[in-house]
Amino acid sequence: MKYALVSILHEAGEKGIWEYEMYELLREKYEKSSICSMREELVGFSNIGWLSVLAIREMDGHLLRKYRLQKRHHDFIRYQLQVEEILRELGITKQQILHYHESAATSAV
């Protein structure tokens, strides 16, 4: 789960990605019991300075966060994790990740 989250965040780039968007990308790939730890993993990465919280939104009494991987970690992540291979094994394409950027831009207009 950790590698999948970091790989998605890496490919999301400067605009970041909402945690519910990451959930959508991963929900068919992981058991619910694994996905339940997603928020804790993201908060943990944020606490150690790997992620920035770009926005916080409230929905139905729950806080949702938009995260971005800190730029200074991009090269290290690409080298250590083989991001493209992880995403390929999960069946997730960069186009799927960037689709959320396009959807957000369209809904903001």
Question: What's the quick description here?
Answer:
The chain has helices at residues 2-12, 19-26, 32-35, 38-47, 74-81, 83-90, 94-108, and strands at 17-18, 51-59, 62-69.
Strands, helices and their partners?
Layout (H helix, E strand, L loop, with lengths): L1 H11 L4 E2 H8 L5 H4 L2 H10 L3 E9 L2 E8 L4 H8 L1 H8 L3 H15 L1
Antiparallel strand pairs: 1-3, 2-3
Helix pairs in contact: 1-5, 1-6, 5-6
Strand order of the largest sheet: 1-3-2
The helix/strand order is HEHHHEEHHH
| Tally of separate helices | 7
Look at the helices and sheets and give the structural class: alpha+beta
Helix content: 55-70%
* Shape summary: globular
Terminal CA distance? 34 Å
Strand content: 15-25%
The average pLDDT value, as a whole number, equals 86
Q: If you compute it from the alpha carbons, what radius of gyration comes out, rounded to the nearest whole angstrom? A: 13 Å
The count of β-strands is 3
| Biggest pleated sheet | 3 strands, antiparallel
Stretches where pLDDT is under 50 for at least 5 consecutive residues are 105-109
